Amino acid sequence: MEASALANHLIEFLQGLDGITAYAAILGLLLISGLGVPLPEDITLIGSGILAAMGAISLPGAIIAGFIGVLLGDAFLFTLGRKYGRAVFDLPGFRRVFTSHRIALAEEKVLSNSQFICFTARFLPGLRAPIYLTAGVLGVRPTIFYLLDGLAALISVPLWVVLGWWFTLNVDVDTGLYYAKKAQIYLVITVLCVVSGYVFYRYWRREKKTEMDVG
């Protein structure tokens, strides 16, 4: 099924829910998505914002459910990687979802800069789950992982939920979903530029300090 068709089906499914059932569905979908299953996490968050705009759930409740859901999925993969090491890639079902190519790419990114990638992975659909699993396998410190992942979630979760909520109230669901998906591209580009600029600045400061110490 194409990504756009899947997104539309996901939104339609969520629109038929309310109250506790809606919160449970949001948590469940985000947990499944966090395990690497190709369910669009960002669309689920947008869908929860749509539900809030429809009055099926509250806006704060949608944000909290989204935050808990994404963090639980991330923590599960990270903990699994720390516990089983590279053997996790041979667990039943994991070889299908986490292909050797995705794992190799994730490992390369984690090894290049674990702090940078643990933050930016939240904005990288497709690589998010392999990176979190690989971060655990490669021994990234839990405090670093949870701090950076939590910080990224504090940015991304409210943003997607509020986007879905605002567009539904001010435009309509279909148009809102269209523009929200477009916004995802610009968000990824913006975050990568900001974080890359910060990493470059830190590198420049370190090199400058080294030159001064030598001089």
Layout: helices, strands, pairs:
Elements: H1 3-15, H2 19-34, H3 41-54, H4 59-84, H5 94-97, H6 100-112, H7 114-120, H8 128-137, H9 142-170, H10 173-214
List keywords for this structure.
single chain, 215 residues, 10 helices, globular
Offer a concise description of the structure:
This protein is an all-alpha fold and 215 residues long. It has helices spanning 3-15, 19-34, 41-54, 59-84, 94-97, 100-112, 114-120, 128-137, 142-170, 173-214. Helix content is 81%, strand content 0%.
What does this structure look like?
With 215 residues, this protein is mostly helical. The protein has one domain (3-214). It is 81% helix and 0% strand. The protein has 10 helices and no strands. It has helices at residues 3-15, 19-34, 41-54, 59-84, 94-97, 100-112, 114-120, 128-137, 142-170, 173-214. The longest helix has 42 residues, at 173-214. The model has no long low-confidence stretch (mean pLDDT 76).
What is the radius of gyration computed over CA atoms, rounded to a whole number of angstroms?
Answer: 19 Å
Give the overall shape, derived from the CA principal axes.
Answer: globular
Percent of residues in beta strands: under 5%
How many structural domains? 1
Class by helix and strand content? mainly alpha
Low-confidence stretches: none
Average of the residue pLDDT scores: 76
Query: Main beta sheet: strand number and arrangement?
Result: none
How do the helices and strands follow one another from N- to C-terminus? HHHHHHHHHH
What is the count of helical runs? 10
The percent range for helix content is over 70%
Distance between the termini: 61 Å
Tell me the number of strands. 0
